Fold this sequence. Notes:
Transmembrane segments: 6-26
Keywords: Membrane, Transmembrane, Transmembrane helix
Order of helices and strands: HEEEEEEEEEEEEHEEE
Helix content: 25-40%
Strand order of the largest sheet: 12-11-10-9-4-3-15
Amino acid sequence: MKKIIIGILSFIVLAGIVIIGGSMYMSHQRKEQLYKHGFQLYEEQIATYIKENYTGVSKIEFSPIFTEGDNKYTIATANVVPVIYDNHGNKAKLGGKIGERVYARYGLLHGISDLDFDGADEEVIYLSDSASGQEIEVSKDKHLPKKAKVQYDTDIDENIDLFVKNKILKDVIKSEQGSPEIKIVYNTEIKEGDYSQWQP
């Protein structure tokens, strides 16, 4: 009788572990999908702004999404690094420190103002509009909607201007002509680590 009871208890404990483990795994998978969706839209916002407002850009490339936290059940921070290539083969990473100036990072709370689930377990994604200071909901959008295009971005503009002045980039000019033939390489791979150490 004791063996039967022990066997039943063992089965219940094992089943509980499997259910809890499965639930945590599914929660982690859903969180990853949320981050991929949010960052895909954010990368489109950045790339669209540069494509439509700068001439002389041949390519924009994005790093993986770098997360820090335990990378299992919580993500403390998440950032991506945009890289601009000019028509002469030069490249420059947006954000970070350039000389004495420190530029904003690109990610949670810096471009993506909200990335979470609501009470009904639905995705909540808000992008920032640095020009207006408004938050734009894009939770249901598969691609960047027109309402989430930004009119100007001071951080990107000043960052690119400094690259040109320091001859890191050549012939990249702010212009309404934009760079319609630009190549854009999006990246929604999620990796753990320090985004500032990534090299294209």
